[in-house]
């Protein structure tokens, strides 16, 4: 059953809701990845390289700012986004033949 953290009174409820949120996060990551795949296709047609440092910095800054706006540790979430970005760049490099 969907509950807020404050509404949970047992560890079973906490775990159930953490699992629910994790599943929702994976659905969002899947959607995000669909845009990475499409970006590789568009970049190939335009001759844009996989790694665009200005965009990487912008996405990392956005992650930090968005995390902090939610009361989260901006540096931690920027690091997570750095890993996401690195994985996406490696994928795009393979698709673009940049390896």
From TrEMBL:
Name of the top EC class for this enzyme: isomerase
SUPFAM superfamilies linked to this entry: Chorismate mutase II
GO molecular function, one term: carbon-oxygen lyase activity
GO biological process: chorismate metabolic process; salicylic acid biosynthetic process
Keyword terms: Isomerase, Lyase, Pyruvate
EC code(s) of this entry: 5.4.99.5
Record flagged with keyword Cell division: no
InterPro entries recorded: Chorismate_II_sf, Chorismate_mutase-related, CM_dom_sf, CM_II_prokaryot, Isochorismate_pyruvate-lyase
Domain Chorismate mutase: 5-96
Membrane-spanning ranges: none
Protein name, entry field: chorismate mutase
Lineage: Bacteria, Pseudomonadati, Pseudomonadota, Alphaproteobacteria, Hyphomicrobiales
């Amino acid at each position: 059953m969907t509950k807020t953290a404050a509404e949970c009174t047992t560890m079973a409820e906490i775990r159930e809701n953490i699992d629910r949120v994790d599943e929702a996060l994976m659905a969002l990551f899947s959607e995000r990845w669909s845009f990475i795949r499409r970006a590789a296709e568009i970049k190939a047609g335009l001759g844009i390289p996989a790694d665009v440092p200005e965009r990487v910095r912008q996405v990392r800054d956005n992650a930090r700012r968005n995390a902090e706006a939610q009361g989260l540790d901006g540096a931690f979430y920027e690091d997570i986004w750095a890993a996401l970005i690195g994985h996406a760049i490696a994928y795009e490099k393979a698709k673009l033949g940049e390896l």
